[in-house]
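With this grant's support, we have settled on a layout for protein records. A representative record follows, to show the layout.
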Amino acid sequence: MKKNKFILLLLGIIFIWFIFPLKANADIGPKPSIIINFNGLEGETYYVTLLSSTKTTGPYSALNDNNKSYAHYQEGDDDYEIFQAFAKYQDSDSYYFLQYLQNSSETQTFSWTYYPPAEFKILIYFPETYSFIKSDSIYKRYAFDSYFTAEVSGTSITAKTSYDYSNELISLVVRILLTILIEVAIGFLFGFRERPLIKFIIIVNAVTQIALNVALNIINYKSGAMAFVIFYILFEIIIFIIESTLYNRYFKKNSKKEFSKYKPTVYALIANSVSFALGLGLAYWIPGIF
């Protein structure tokens, strides 16, 4: 039994170490993103940018006529003529072209994944006809990763938010069930096989995992992956303390078997370490699971 405990703990530590290597980098954290899927432009050649309400965002800024050495495209570069067309565009509401553009002809998708503007208009350029289409509405980032679906008809662009809430709900249920299954299995390895104990483990994990995963989903939605990991670690420590306390009290009163006073605490530590490692593994290898 002691050997099994040691192996499980060691595997959990190794798993965390390899799946989530940390680098000392001032800009290590993920940044907000805007992803727009377009309908109605199939077969068209077109480029997309977002006009910003501010002159700068991260490394992107409006082109300064007095100092063009900061231009992101230089003569001879691919898409330089496209860049020039966007740079000459004048928005009636004085929104700015921040020198970021993308050819969305094949993917029907535009992605700005590093410091996109917080408030923007959608601008599409058709190089074959030298023409533009601009959204009349102004849009805002609504989440850390903001998804939109844009319908283009004639000279009109209408975009709607398209965050996949149904997929998030399915992922939430899968994570909770998987965690409960793992912690029950580890409970069996520790000898906690009596029905009242297993039932209590399931109830406690159902409550803590629902609270944990709902909180993490909200944090990931609003603040992104780095905040998600920081709070994940903090919440897991809190959950370990809560579960350890509850298991110690309940198991001693309701188990017919004798066991050491530290056994429930060690179980809670190993069970939460393994489920924590699994959670990080899922977040790293299958990003859509969170």
In short: The first helix runs from residue 2 to 19. The radius of gyration is 26 Å. The longest strand covers residues 145-153.
